[in-house]
Design brief:
By secondary structure, the chain is α/β, with parallel strands linked by helices. It contains 2 helices and 8 strands; from the N terminus they run βαββββαβββ. Helix content is 17%, strand content 35%. Residues 5-134 form the Glyoxalase/fosfomycin resistance/dioxygenase domain. It comes from Pseudoxanthomonas daejeonensis.
Length: 144
């Protein structure tokens, strides 16, 4: 059973998912705005301020679904805490390329990409969209 990732954004879900698809060689599977949603019984009219926000977006990257939504007044954005998206590769150049791209306008670099005792390269950051990332260049689960 595959595990997939669902992220929450503060109005930039479309930009984030499209940039991740481009960076990681994925495909945008769909983007639906709150304004495109059919009326739901028991739900009032969607405020005009959120009609262009993404209700559900989905990209496929290497067999993994990365999905997301934008916050609304009923479900305010609280940030992403306590978890990371991990990009795993055995290719040093690929880890450097991905980390450099994610670092563009990053909110915070927690650990610059560097060699560690467990990895040829490892780094962590919170990208411009508020998504925490770990970039790891090694075997995904070393024996030990």
């Amino acid at each position: 059973m595959p595990l997939n990732t669902y992220l929450s954004f503060d109005g930039d879900c479309r930009q984030a998912l499209e940039s991740y698809a481009e960076l990681l060689g994925g495909t945008v599977m769909g983007m639906m705005t709150f304004g495109e949603m059919p009326p739901q019984e028991g739900c009032g009219e969607m405020p005009a301020s959120v009609k262009d926000r993404i209700m559900h977006g989905c990209v496929e990257i290497g067999g993994h679904l990365l999905m997301g939504t934008d916050a609304t007044p009923d479900h305010p954005y609280r940030g992403i805490t306590g978890s990371y998206i991990t990009f795993q590769t055995a290719d040093v150049a690929e880890s450097e390329r991905v980390f450099a791209a994610l670092s563009q306008d990053a909110r915070r670099t927690e650990m610059p990409l560097q060699q560690t005792f467990w990895a040829k390269r490892y780094g962590s950051l919170v990208d411009r969209h508020g998504v925490p990332w770990m970039v790891n260049c090694s075997d995904p689960c070393p024996e030990g």
